[in-house]
Amino acid sequence: MRGEGNGALARAEAETSADAVCARLPGFYKLTVPERLDLLARMYRWGPDELGAVRANGSLSAESANQMIENALGIFSLPLGVGLNLSVNGRDYLVPMVIEEPSVVAAVSFAAKIVRESGGFAAEAEPGLMIGQVQVTRYGDPVRAAKAIAAHEEQILALANSFHPAMQRRGGGARQIEVRTLPAPEGPAGEPLLVVHLLVDTQEAMGANLINTMAEGIAPLIEQITKGRVYLRILSNLADRRLARASCRIPVEALADFNMPGMEIAEGISQASRFAQADPYRAATHNKGVMNGIDAVAIATGQDWRAIEAGAHAYACSGGQYRPLSKWSLDDRHLVGSIELPLALGTVGGAIKAHPGVQFAFRLLRVSSAREMAMVFASVGLAQNLAALRALGSVGIQKGHMALHARCVAVTAGARGLHVKKVADLLVKAGTVKVDKAREILATLCFEDGEEVGDLA
Ligand code: NDP
Prior knowledge:
By secondary structure, the protein is of the alpha+beta class. Helix content is 48%, strand content 18%. The protein has 17 helices and 10 strands. It has helices spanning 6-15, 33-44, 48-55, 62-68, 104-116, 142-151, 153-162, 165-169, 208-226, 262-278, 280-300, 305-316, 356-365, 370-392, 398-412, 418-430, 435-449; strands spanning 80-88, 91-98, 122-125, 129-137, 173-182, 193-201, 229-235, 243-251, 326-331, 334-342. A 4-stranded antiparallel beta sheet has the order 3-8-10-9. A 4-stranded antiparallel beta sheet has the order 5-6-4-7. A hairpin with a 2-residue loop joins strand 1 (80-88) and strand 2. The structure holds NADPH dihydro-nicotinamide-adenine-dinucleotide phosphate (NDP). Residues 164, 166-167, 170, 202-210, 212, 235, 237, 304, 307, 346, 348-350 line the site of NADPH dihydro-nicotinamide-adenine-dinucleotide phosphate.
């Protein structure tokens, strides 16, 4: 079946240069799913094999699932969408996003379009220095123990690197030792905590497994040096040596919408930013919006999104109060936004090579390194945040969100096929996006169409 977007397909193709991937695809949303895939296949010059994974809904086999986790029962599916319009450091990216929540993909695409027309996102990311922690106890005098560890830095690093010689050959590996003494949580009567940080350049890997191997490997040497006893030896998810940043600058006129001048919308966004700076209750929701986008691309690309979440929220707290990861302000009739957060990402490791859906996501995203990927993730987070604050600081999010949510409610009520849109539209018109109302509307539609009402239970 052809969708209503045949004209859109032609327009999108016309805007797509023959040999380059373009993230600006007007009318893409009007295409049917097969038409969207066809368009991407032509633009990327993909053959049937490359589309196979997405056509088979990710195509992770039950056998692979059984290798990946314990007590596997089957495969659990989620929608895969594509975020449009993203331009980062002058390069176009189509962003694979796996998420069950309506409006996230639309929001990132919309905000990315505004930013794109204002010059795009500028982004940077630090190289992959990750932290492994080794907790030492019963070490005697903390100053003596700390000095002894520092004096053996070369030996400790050499031992750490001996567990992953390939990492050094790639230009990475253990780089530095830091010794931290922390006050005892029980108060002055307790032994201060002595924690050794092993800083490791993990190159293209997120690095958890290799860091844990190194941290466990150096523990006996640290015990020998300090005459103490080592307990925990594991990576820290507060990856604050692996920060990514993105920023944008938008003329206020570009924000005009909802019958409101751009300056008023920009003012609403900067007020929302002030609110989140001052109030952790607001900052939590602000950052949830940021992570809506980042988590979706993280899941699509097989990243450990729990690790990313843990790092982001710990970093948001690093000044002693939970704060927003992004900021917005007005400057000379421009809205200026920036974001900074730790992004421990990998293009290798974990399930990345094992999951065909993840491989498809990488082909779509076209990043050549974990650092480039971190720049894209940071930009996605900032775009998502812009979209949310633009609505929140003006007309509120419910109008747009409920229109999308209505489709989900219609499906929950039993609507299928063409009925989904009809029921959703009527729910929005009625101003009541509830399952009971959807059932009522569906029953009426089915009656009018002379159809059996399906299982509406
Ligand atoms: P893996 O151990 O799966 O893979 C990383 C390995 O890939 C490297 O050790 C390296 O092995 C190899 N490799 C090949 N090419 C490269 C390259 N160019 N750059 C770097 N490495 C390369 O993954 P990670 O060590 O990255 O760990 C991530 C996994 O650990 C995730 O699945 C995560 O869920 C999990 N995890 C997370 C924890 C946390 O966040 N707290 C805790 C424990 C696990 P070689 O040098 O031998 O070739």
